[in-house]
Amino acid sequence: MEINVLFDKETTSRNLYKGWGVSFLINKEVLFDTGESGRWLLGNIEKLKVDIEKIKAVVISHDHWDHTGGLWELLKNKEGIKVYACPDFSTGFKRKVKKLKGKLIEAGKITKITDSIFVTGEISGEYKGRYIAEQALIIRTGKGLTIVTGCSHPGIIKIINQVKKDFPSVRIYLVFGGFHLIEKDRKEVRFIAEKLKIMGIEKVGPTHCTGYDAQMIFKQVYKEAFITIKTGMTFEV
Question: What is the pTM (predicted TM-score) of this model?
Answer without folding.
Answer: 0.98
